[in-house]
Each structure stands twice: as C-alpha cells, then as structure tokens.
Amino acid sequence: MKVLAFNCSPKMDKGSTALILTPFLEGMRGPGAEVELLYTKKLKINPCQGCFNCWLKTPGKCFQDDDMNMLYPKLHEADIWVFATPVYVDGVSGPMKNLIDRMIPLLQPFFELRDGHCRHVVRQGHKYGKVVLVSNCGFWEMDNFDPLLAHMKAFCRNGAKEFRGALLRPHGEALRPMMEMGAPVNDILEAAKEAGRQLVTEGEMSAETQATVSRELMPLEMYVQVANQGFQQALDALEKK
Ligand SMILES: Cc1cc2nc3c(=O)[nH]c(=O)nc-3n(C[C@H](O)[C@H](O)[C@H](O)COP(=O)(O)O)c2cc1C
Question: Which residues contact 150 (CB under 8 A, 6 or more apart)?
Fold first, then answer.
C-alpha cells in the first residue's frame, strides 16, 4: 500500500501539525505501508493559472514547469493521500490550496452525473483511493475545523476519492509546550499512531481513536488566560528592547 503525505505547514517538522502527523505516519509504516512524506514548503508549486490548458490543449499536463510534474505520477500511484495543514483563516494553508488546485489535470473536462450530481470524469490511471486530513488550530473549539472538513469532503466527492476521516487537534498550539513541560499527553500521540495502524490494517480509523487525538488539553477559560499571558509577555519583551 502506497501512502503519499503532504505536510503543508510552513513550520514543517517544527510545527504543531507535525506532532500529530509524525506518529500517524509511523503507525502506517508499522504494518508495512510505503509512506512518502513531502513538504509543500520545499516544493515549487505555482498557483493554477486557470487557463484549462491541462484539459483542452495538453490533456493531463499543466503548462507550468514546476514540481507538480514530478507529483502527478506519485498522486496517480498512491492508495492514500494524507493532507496535513494548520487552519489558516478558517481554511487550509495557502500552499495546500495551490497543491489541490493544481490537481485538476487528474480529471477530465467532461461532466458526468455521479449520484445525481454533476462531476468531472476522472482521467485514466486515476485510483479511487482514500484521503485523510490531519489538522490543528489555534482556537480551542472543534468547530474551527468545520470549513476544512466540508472542503475536504467536497474535494473527495468531486475527485472520486474516498474521504476516510480526519485527525484534528484543537488548541494545538498548547500541545508542544505541554509535552516540553512533561504533561501527560502521550495518549494523544499514541492515538495518532494507532489511527495510522488502523487505517492500513482495517481500512478506517476508529471514532474513539480520533476522539483521543482531539481530546481537551485544558478548559477553555484556562486556555484563553494562558494564551493571553503568553501574548502579553511577548509584547512586553518588545518594549524592553
Ligand atoms: C495566517 C494564520 C491564520 C490562522 N487562522 C486561524 C484560524 O482561522 N483559526 C484557528 O483556530 N487558528 C488559526 N491560526 C493558528 C494556527 O492554526 C495554529 O497556530 C497552528 O497550531 C499552526 O500549526 P503549525 O505549527 O503546524 O504551523 C492561524 C495562523 C496563521 C499563521
């Protein structure tokens, strides 16, 4: 089984997204999945120019000469796509949006009706694979992921992919400092790993495992207080400079 994962945080391995993504991918490698992890920050992926050349002039091929050319065969071959992104202004990060916009050559321009809904016909060689979202955000509540979930589900319906769920880490900014302080958060990392194992061996991640990844780190009021203290300290330090 081939897994193609994208870390779409500009902070790459130093970010909070990676804290969940890393054990998740490790969990997939355990039972033998062949996992390739790519960082959008290291890739040159220009924005889509909206010309539709990839549909009507050079079918299946974008005119832009960048890293997407190397990615198209990998995208075709992979059984599972993992998109890992922080929440940016209630959506996916800009590099991730560029990446998925540039995936339209995987489809054909023709319309067809799938489940009574207008969709594009998929291009030959396209696999009806699975998609998983890994995300974290700065705000406390789970509903901050609603726009991303709606987007990923729609992306999968349009692209004939199977959305297999999400590992979501609300108030994700608190996870790293808590780990550094030795707080008991290992269950979250273990659950992310277990989710990877489950996805490869059972085809899906259990609701319980996903819930553990998202579990509360601290009460809402405390999080607001701790975050504001941190912001104030940073601003006070500026004044002292
Ligand atoms: C430009 C920008 C926009 C953001 N927008 C949101 C947002 O809409 N909702 C939210 O909860 N957090 C938001 N955040 C916070 C990030 O999701 C949070 O810092 C996350 O932990 C970053 O993950 P990373 O360390 O992997 O990059 C935003 C951060 C940035 C830099």
Answer: none
pLDDT tens per residue, range 172-224? 999 999 999 999 999 999 999 999 999 999 999 999 999 999 999 999 999 99
Per CATH, the homologous superfamily of domain 2-216 is: Flavodoxin domain (3.40.50.360)
Cα–Cα distance, 228 to 233 (Å, whole number): 9
Please give the DSSP secondary-structure letter assigned to residue 88.
Answer: B
Q: How far is the CA of 174 from the centre of ligand 1 (A)?
A: 12
Ligand 1 center to 151 CA (angstroms): 17
Mutate to test the pocket of ligand 1, among 22, 37, 87, 140 (most ligand atoms within 8 A of CB): 87
Domain ranges of the chain: 2-216
Nearest CA to ligand 1 atom 8: 89
pLDDT tens string 75-125: 999 999 999 999 999 999 999 999 999 999 999 999 999 999 999 999 988
